[in-house]
Structures are given as structure tokens and as C-alpha cells.
Amino acid sequence: MKKILEMLSEEMGKAFEAAGYDGALGRVTISNRPDLCEYQCNGAMAGAKRYKKAPIAIADDVAEKLADSEVFQEAAAAAPGFLNLKLSGKFLLDVVKTMSKEPKFGLEMPEKPKKIVIDYGGPNLAKPLHVGHLRSAILGESVKRICRYAGHECIGDVHMGDWGMPMGLVITGLKEQHPEWVYFNEGYEGEYPVEPPFTVAELEEIYPAASARSKEDPEFKAKAMENTYKLQNGVRGHRALWKHILNASVADLKKNYRNLNVEFDLWKGESDVHELIPDMVAEMKEKGYAYISEGALVVDVKEDTDTKEIPPCMILKSDGAALYNTTDLATIMERVRLYQPDEIIYMTDKRQELYFEQVFRCARKTKLVKPEMQLKFLGFGTMNGSDGKPFKTRDGGVMRLEKLVQDTKDEMYRKIREGRKCLEMSEQEAKEISDIVALSALKYGDLSNQASKDYIFDIDKFTSFEGDTGPYILYTIVRIKSILAKYREQGGSTEALELLEAGNASEKALEMTLTQFNTMMQNAAEETAPQRVCAYVYDLANALNHFYHETPILKEEDAGRQQSLIALIMLTKDIMETCIDLLGFSAPEKM
Ligand code: ARG
User: Fold this and answer.
1) Which residues have CB under 8 Å from 276's CB, separation 6+?
2) What distance in Å separates the CA atoms of residue 224 and residue 192, rounded to the nearest whole number?
3) Quick check: CB of 119 below 6 Å from ligand 1?
4) Dist CA 121 CA 137 (whole Å)
5) For the stretch 359-373, what's the b/e string if a residue is b when 16 or more beta carbons lie within 10 angstroms of its beta carbon?
6) pLDDT exceeds cutoff 70 at 421
7) Atom 2 (ligand 1): residue with closest C-alpha?
8) pLDDT, tens digit, for every residue of 469-482?
């Protein structure tokens, strides 16, 4: 169905034409003076020069033509030339009714849906997930869900860091501790054990130690480089050990992401494109894009219009080893071959912006992608602690994701237990509910900010039941659920309810907020901006709560009117639940 602003602009355009002016002047927007009107049109002001008339005269002409409009209950010309508009209750009702019947509340599907690969998460094997990975996972998941809902085909790829030097470091660390392991016996030709010889917790201890040591001990570093080389070049024992690292880490990562309600379609990583690199490099050389500079193989990517220096994109190091760039370029090549996407979206910390600029330019220059294919980098800001510095543990270490999630759950549990209402809950129930609500606190706290900005992780604010928070949104949904439950207890049916015209201002305001869903969704998808969904669902929660305070629902004596109120809150609940699903969390039955 058409978006409400389109319908209103159409009606307004007709009035402009009927009064002898250009219909295009009839663009209607949401009022920025809600105390005066619901919608407004500034077309009379825009047309004044062209028609050599005072804006108020044009506005008067147009308002006259709207005197018996079925769309506007009121269209008033106001100095210096505004058209202040109020909707007819009947028209609004029709729009809400249509929305409630159409799939996706009448959201129009794109004429040409896009195929989009979304590269997010980006965990590194054998390294614990930290809060930076949290942002990528939360934002990427939401962007994927939003684009999918808007009608595009989306493929989410976790793109693990599972290749290169970190793997060499871990293997070297393991070898120092267990030189006797069969994996290090290069003459061995038999089968390797099926079970991994370590746990994920052990692995995660090895990496930081090995990484620190390589910075001080050149001999250790040289060994790690050699082991990286052996792994990449297919030495059996190294590959077998790496496979264990991969399997153990993936199982652990899947568990972590499941807890966050984050799901990937593809579990690919840098290692998956290893075989593609030699041909890609050969072609770049052959076609003259790549050349040797100070021993390394590079592609120039600077352009005449650059205002800052964009360094060349390095394809191979002087020792011939592949880099982060190399695997990213080969991954673009693979994605084009396997999926022919219209667009690839990358979700990482904004500090990787220059890096991706180089990669994108290189991919275009070397014709890995067609000119019309979009490569989009969505960089996000840092999550800071209350001191405004990157979030750390109390003793100053890097905050592990699991710890952060657990802290949020604990705080939520404390708050839920504090609430008197929950005294009758069992221990288990309180735990389950606080886990669900904690996820909303964490995700909404992140997603409600503009992604590219830094934000402060304020656990107290995020877990609050009041204000612009996840728990407040869930609380509102739970409130609707409980009204519906009581209504059913009173014997009310929720089948075939008929919506009636709004009976008071807060009901009308709720309906108007509902009708903004489509415009919001389209903008959120076009701008890949989950914060739009947050801002909308917050408005909707406020509109619902205001309406609830003004309108007795369960005490309503007129059965038809009560059914209409129930239908309205059911629609509100459906839309709110759709929104939180797009943000990647859900609501409990009670809280
Ligand atoms: N593993 C990387 C990191 O931790 C993120 C990967 C992002 N995706 C990509 N295609 N480079 O920084």
C-alpha cells in the first residue's frame, strides 16, 4: 500500500491543482508543531515567487478547496503561508484497517530486490570475543534482518579470522608446550586423533601469551612465521591441528552467538579463499595492475580527486605471504562467483575505514567486481566505559564479551528481583526473564545510537525500565500482553474484531504513529540504520502508554468499542514485536 505521506500529498496536490497551482507543491510532512496540527504543507510558501502572490493568499485558495476533503478534517491557512492539517478520523481508520490486513503491514516490496552479502561478526579463532565484536554482531544482525524484511535477499557471513599469523602463533605456542604431539612429527603418515587435544579455554590462554612473546622474542616470532607458512602450504600435521582449532572455536562461537540471538547463513573464513589467491595474484600481475615495490606486491589505488593520501593496497608481503587484504580481495572474488551479489556490506570498527577504501578501490580497479556492484563499509564507533575511554575490565584488561553479557544479566536479575511484582516468580522463571530482558538492554543500548558514533556503556541506564531503553520497550509489550490476557479471562474473544474510529486524541495519536511504520521501515532499510527502528518503536511505546492512561480498556462497557480498543492494541503489539525482532531480541510473557 502507499505510504501515508504519499496519500496525504496526493490529496493536497489535487487541491493545489484545483486552485490553479502546480500539484507538486502539495508535499505534506509530519507537523513540527504538534501543538497546532498533525501534518503540514509548506507548498504555498514555495510557490509564492512563481505565482507572484503572497503565500497566505495561495494557502487560503488551497484550504478552500479542501473544505469537504475526506482526508483532512481540517486544513487551515496560517501566517505566513502554512497549511496546518488534521486528519479525518475516518480516513485514518481506513489506513489502519488496510495496514492490519496486508502482509508486513502494507510495506511495499522493492521492484527489483537486491541480493546482499552482509559480512559481520568477524571473530578471530583462538582469541576471545571482545566488545568490538559485540557491536559488529549486534549491528550486522539487525541490518540483515531489516534489509530482509524490506524485501531483499540477504546472506550473512561471519567471515572468521582463521588464517595467517595468529594461527601460526597458536601452533607455535602449542608446540612449545607439547613438542611430543604427533601433529609435530613431520614424518608421521597415519591418521590424526579425532578429538582435539585442548579445550577452547586452553586455546584462549595460548594466543595472548604467544602474541606477547613474539613481540619480545625474535626467535619465537620467526618460528611462528615458519609455522604460518607450513600451515598455509599444507603441512599435514599443521593442517590437522588447525582443523581442531577451527572446530573447537566454531562450536564455542556458535554457542556465544546463539546466546546473542545472532545467526549466520555462512560460516566462512579467510582460510576458505586460500586456494583462490595464486590465480588472483597472477591475473593482477599479468594485467599490469600489481607491481613490486620495496619487495612487496602492491596495487596503486590513489585517485586524482583524493584530498588525503591513500597508500597502495598491498597484495603480498615481501616473503610472499598473504595478508588481511589478500584474503579480503579473494573473498570478494569468491562471493561474486558463488552468489553474484548486488551489494556487499561490511560491518567493522570505523578504524578499518581506510583499509576498506583501499580494498574496494583495488577490487574495482582490478575488475574483481562489476562497476554497478556496491561495496559498502559501515563503520561503527567505540563502546566506551563511563570514563569515556574504550570499555575495559576493572583491572584495565580487555573486556570479554561473555563477561559483559553476564554482568548485564546479573544486573537485570537484581532489578527484576527488586520489583515487587516479581516476588511470585520462581527462581528459574526470574532467571529466564532477566536473560531475555538483559539482551534487550544490551542490544537496544547499542542500536539506538547512530552506529558510527562512540557511545558509553551505561549498565544502569540500559537496564532501566524507564526512558529510551530496551526494557521499557519490552515492558510496554508485556503490558499489552497482560491486558489481552485479562480480556480473555473476562471471556472476550480476539477473533474478527472490528476497528472503529478513534474515540479520543491519544487513540488518534496512537493510530497516526502506527501509520508511520512503512515510511520508517523504508528509510531504515535504505540507510541501513537500526537506530530508526529504535526511535520508532520508542515513539510507539510512548503513544501506547499515553493511550493506555487515557483510555480504560477493560472497563469499557460498550462491547463494540472495547473490541475496537483490543484490536488496536493487538496491532500495536504486532508492530512492536516486528520491530524488536528486527533489532534481534524478543519479549517475555511477563516481567
Ligand atoms: N576479524 C576481523 C577483526 O577482528 C574483522 C573481519 C571483518 N571482515 C572482513 N571481511 N575483513 O578485526
Assistant:
1) 330, 333, 334
2) 22
3) yes
4) 4
5) bbbbbebbebbeeeb
6) no
7) 122
8) 999 999 999 999 99
The answer to whether the beta carbons of residues 159 and 269 sit under 8 Å apart is: yes
Cα–Cα distance, 174 to 168 (Å, whole number): 10
Please give the distance, rounded to the nearest whole angstrom, from the Cα atom of residue 331 to the centre of ligand 1. Answer: 12
Cα 159 to averaged position of ligand 1 atoms, centre (Å) = 7
Return d(Cα 63, Cα 259) in angstroms, integer.
56
Check if the beta carbon of residue 465 is closer than 8 Å to that of residue 436.
no
Cα separation of 284 and 362, whole Å? 10
Closest-CA residue to 212 (of 169, 242, 271): 169
Residue 182 carries which side chain, given as an amino acid letter? V
Three-state secondary-structure class, residue 573: helix
Question: Which 3 state secondary structure label does DSSP give 160?
Answer: strand
Query: Which of 417, 585, 572 lies closest to 483 in space, CA to CA?
Result: 572
Q: Is the pLDDT of residue 291 over 90?
A: yes
For residue 7, count CB atoms less than 10 angstroms from its CB and return exposed for 0-12, middle for 13-18, buried for 19 or more: middle
Q: Which residues have C-beta within 8 Å of that of residue 100, sequence separation ≥ 6?
A: 499, 567, 571
The answer to whether the CB of 377 falls within 8 A of the CB of 346 is yes
In short, whether 159's Cβ falls inside 6 Å of ligand 1 is yes
State which ligand 1 atom lies nearest to the alpha carbon of 324. 11
Cα–Cα distance between 464 and 411 in angstroms, integer? Answer: 10
Task: Express each pLDDT in 64-97 by its tens digit.
Answer: 999 999 999 999 999 999 999 999 999 999 999 9
Establish whether residue 327 lines the binding site of ligand 1, counting it when its CB lies within 6 angstroms of any ligand atom.
Answer: no
Residue 325's alpha-carbon distances to 313, 316, 342, in angstroms, are 7, 9, 21
For 39-65, the pLDDT digits (tens) are 999 999 999 999 999 999 999 999 999
Q: Does the C-beta of 346 come closer than 6 Å to ligand 1?
A: yes
From residue 99, alpha-carbon distances to 116, 237, 501 in Å are 27, 61, 15
State the Cα–Cα distance between residues 3 and 515, nearest whole angstrom. Answer: 8
Q: Report the alpha-carbon distance of residue 122 to residue 137 in Å, rounded.
A: 8
Other C-beta atoms lying within 10 Å of the C-beta of residue 102:
13
Residue nearest atom 11 in ligand 1 by C-alpha distance: 328
d(CA 320, CA 174): 25
Phi and psi at residue 546, in whole multiples of 5°? -65, -50
pLDDT digits (tens, 9 = 90+) for 560-589: 999 999 999 999 999 999 999 999 999 999
Q: What distance in Å separates the CA atoms of residue 158 and residue 160, rounded to the nearest whole number?
A: 6
Q: Is the pLDDT of residue 130 over 70?
A: yes
Work out the percent of the chain whose per-residue pLDDT is above 90.
88
pLDDT beyond 80 at 309: yes
Ligand 1: which of 352, 354, 358, 378 to mutate, judged by most atoms within 8 Å of the beta carbon?
A: 352
> Grid coordinates in use for 200?
577452547
- Determine the pLDDT at residue 3: 95
Strand partners, 376: 345
The strand pairing partners of 346, in sequence order, are 119, 377
Cβ partners under 8 Å of residue 471, min gap 6: 412, 437, 440, 441, 463, 464, 465, 591
481 lines ligand 1 (CB under 6 A): no
